[in-house]
């Protein structure tokens, strides 16, 4: 028996020591990965190389600091990805790199909003001004990918491939039928004829005002879409409209006959073309470097100038609190703006807004910091795919606002939703409620019963007050009358082009145009660009909310493109408090 316990004890010690050793190795492994995540060292590029661009992943404003990029283990796959910031810097750097002779755009689908694609497309067009080539190839072009591909001097399609070219569409998901089945009533308090964010809860289809505004801004975006393709491909705009409207491109040969592509090639023929255009040896492989490996820091971030321009990335749904790299927390963004304001080395601020809005209170908190900063140094706003409702709220106080023609903006309106779940509890679950209160309104907003008329009036007054505050601040920021802002407000959504015409934005342009404008306003010829807020530490990020990350990973893997519907439903169910948000999620397929 003594020997038995001795053996068991020794085995336990061995197991414990083994686990301890594995744990130490794991910590070392994680530390090495995290330390390497901060490295911006570019790869060595051989002469006569081609930069390979695929962009087959969701493109955010800035790349996540992911220490596990390109790490595959037990079925978990992680791919190195870039944000718009890094993509633009990579293209700009390649433009002046004598070792890079051109860009190979391997395009099938681009997971990005219209304005993001516009910025990348413009960067590729600028790249071609160096005399270098851009060649696009795909087996299947989605509309977003094709729009990006039209920046190339040559577009090729697989002989059995397809070009999807049929026009743009916008679709909203409506929940009323589901709520009715559950016995849940969405009690809506709003201001704005066009404030359609509440419609999914109370209607089964679009209202006529909503249909008018969507027709207007989608038509404006489509007009720009056709104009730019017409310029690049030398095809009459009317012909492009007819091709899409009648779905004339039904066969690869149709794409050639309508001059939408330059030829039908297999991959080996494309590689031969790349060798020829880059001056590579025909008997060897194409010398290439992926943009993910090539892209490093923006050259403007590496200069030693003591003068700085801060670019503050305000991205995602607006909430109170800290938020993260994908959610705009009022505390985090306010702190970043405040830091830029109090730093004497920072001479101007560019606020990059990409947000559908959210909490009205959180929006106001950030607006205040913009106002204070504007008093001491220039503040320029650059709008991304969406800068609407709360996203416009925080932008309106800036000295100048830049948007892309296909940016979604405006939506100056306010709403609140208070669910009445009495029938759900009573009829579906057999649950009833009873209680006491010390005052008439002590249980104001309780979801177990409907609002009284007095309570509805209280909420309506709060929403009216918020809308009045919103329109007053926009009027002051844009130097317009409040009456005029109300006339173009009412929750109406505008494209960037429409917003330029009605005075909600000052110029059409990208983030680099906004930075140049900030430098000019601050009278700077030499400056360094710094980014705020600091991105989430990759080591901390790995361990924080790991359960959520696993859930999202498997949900995306299972649902694919339909993951967007899951996100919309989740966002709708999370709404609380008075909101300034837009309901649209425009996707180009």
UniProtKB/TrEMBL annotation:
Residues 127-278, 374-524 form the Peptidase S49 domain. Keywords: Hydrolase, Membrane, Protease, Serine protease, Transmembrane, Transmembrane helix. GO terms for biological process: signal peptide processing. It comes from the Bacteria. The chain crosses the membrane at residues 7-34. One of its GO terms (molecular function) is serine-type peptidase activity. GO terms for cellular component: membrane. It is found in: Membrane. CDD domains: S49_SppA_67K_type, S49_Sppa_N_C. It holds the Pfam family Peptidase_S49. The active site is at residues 195, 389. The keyword Membrane applies. The keyword Ribosomal protein does not apply. Belongs to the peptidase S49 family. This is Protease-4. It comes from Daejeonella lutea.
